[in-house]
Amino acid sequence: MGVLSMAICKTVWVHAPHLTATSDSEPLQLPGLNLPFTLSTAELPETLRTPNHDDRYSKFVSEVGAADNESWGIVVNSFLELEQPHVKSFESFHQNGAKACCLGPLLLYNELEKIPEQYPTAMSIKWLTEQAMPASVIYVSFGTQADVSDAQLDEVVFGLEASGYSFLWVVRSNTWNPPKGLEERIKNKGLIVSDWVDQRRILGHRSTGGFLSHCGWNSVLESLSIGVPILALPMMAEQSLNAKLVVDGFGAGVRIPMESGFEGEHQIIGKKAICQGVRELMGGKKASYVRERTQALGRAGTRAVQEGGSSHETLSRLIDTLHAAQN
């Protein structure tokens, strides 16, 4: 998680009995936080939407939070140029003067090596390289933890197809199969893979122009660090907060319209909303702006991990402090 998402979660957890809102859509007033966007109860993680913390999971979260608040320090995969306005608010929950050490983007500390031909990502890179136009492909991945129903996956692929944009989609499902006739229809426009891929290489390819993401923090930071704008489709945990920050805080992405239906217990975002979101991110009125914002953040992230950068300096101070504590 990033600094602001953690600060929001801690604030809501501590002040939940005193937070008042007449409806789920009314903006919340969170003590001690200066948010760059309005936030309603409906946009909070599910575990924070009710003031009742008596269930077993909530008690576990409470115990973890209490231990975290007593820690010596907190290492965060973020960088000051991205979240500095919220660091002090986050640190205020921790005792003994604990500091948040923003050391990211961690992925930028390592240089990429040449891909072996048998490397799992090689086929995807080859396909991307064959695309004629730079920034013409939208990359799609929902991480490894979200439970995405087959019905939702159908809507995603139909929406991608209808958008008219080329796409590379990494699907992790043991039950979903492409609808009949789909692979033939999209063979010149889309690639669907089920193997693990090197997401950094995919995002960094010249043909990749957008990322349809669940907005897990690691994926968000990878995309921003490389300068690829995000089409946000949050699914669980704090991902809705990350999506708000990306779209309304950073101006580095677009949110998929939340028009939905239900398939059993699963909420379904329809193909029309998926299609609209892809078109807006890749070629709509906001496309140029979000691309410029994301590229600016990517440059800032690169500077942060270079010698003399904010994250590089924070890491050096942390190492010196740990060495001194051992002597």
Molecular structure report:
This protein has 327 residues and is α/β, with parallel strands linked by helices. The chain has 2 domains: 3-102, no CATH class; 122-302, Rossmann fold, CATH 3.40.50.2000. Helix content is 43%, strand content 13%. The chain contains 13 helices and 10 strands. It has helices at residues 3-15, 56-69, 80-83, 87-91, 122-129, 150-163, 182-186, 199-204, 217-226, 239-249, 271-283, 287-305, 310-326, and strands at 73-76, 99-102, 137-141, 166-170, 190-193, 208-213, 230-232, 253-255, 260-263, 266-269. The protein has a 6-stranded parallel sheet, sandwiched between helices. Strands 1-2 form a two-stranded parallel ribbon. A hairpin with a 2-residue loop joins β9 and β10 (266-269). The mean pLDDT is 88.
Strand order of the largest sheet: 5-4-3-6-7-8
Integer count of domains: 2
- Give the SSE order as H and E letters: HHEHHEHEHEHEHEHEHEEEHHH
Q: Please count the helical segments.
A: 13
CATH homologous superfamily assignment of the largest domain: Glycogen Phosphorylase B
Fraction of helical residues: 40-55%
Distance between the termini: 32 Å
